[in-house]
Specification:
Largest sheet: 3 strands, antiparallel
Shape: globular
Order of helices and strands: EHHEEH
Strand order of the largest sheet: 1-3-2
Number of domains: 1
Number of helices: 3
Distance between the termini: 42 Å
Helix content: 40-55%
Oligomer: single chain
Strand content: 5-15%
Structural class: alpha+beta
Radius of gyration: 14 Å
Length: 76
């Protein structure tokens, strides 16, 4: 991992994904219908301090983008 990688707190991470803070938390909650196990893991800096890797968030967006695009082989 690059030691200079950027990290964001919850509100900034939600903003980077373009979703509300509530939706951001729902994606991480296994009890929520919006739960997504592919969502990037939290990075704990302390007992009450959590950040998210910007690179991981960007990779997550690419995964979501790829899974919603139709396959090119089936188009005519």
């Amino acid at each position: 991992m690059n030691s200079l990688s950027l990290s964001l707190r919850g509100k900034g991470a939600a903003r980077a994904l373009g979703i509300s803070l509530a939706a951001f938390h729902e994606l991480q909650n296994p009890r929520s219908p919006r739960f997504d196990p592919r969502f990037p893991a939290k990075i704990h800096l302390g007992p009450r301090s959590v950040v998210y890797s910007l690179a991981d968030l960007q990779a997550y967006l690419e995964i979501c983008k790829a899974s919603t695009q139709p396959s090119k082989g089936g188009e005519q």
